[in-house]
Specification:
By secondary structure, the chain is mainly α. The chain contains six helices and no strands.
Length: 80
């Protein structure tokens, strides 16, 4: 199942599970994206819209951006 078809809570847990499975830390993504770990956590949790961070998460997981975040999420007001 694509993560984009999940509700936000399930998507959050799916992302975190994949990060753990692949031994990728939020801190490593933050370093690569030039942001704080807290910002990465807020994007995963759904409280921050930041395309740059979303892209870094997708790249780290080797997934397409659109496979994680649905179109309606991408059309909302953008952050960082």
């Amino acid at each position: 199942m694509l993560m984009c078809r999940m509700n936000k809570k399930d998507r959050r847990w799916a992302i975190r599970t994949r990060l753990l499975r692949h031994e990728i830390s939020q801190a490593a993504i933050a370093l690569q994206a030039g942001v704080t770990q807290g910002a990465v956590s807020r994007v995963i949790g759904g409280s921050l819209d930041a395309p740059k961070i979303r892209r870094a998460i997708a790249d780290a997981l080797r997934l397409k951006y659109e496979a994680i975040w649905p179109r309606e999420d991408n059309n909302r007001k953008k952050g960082a």
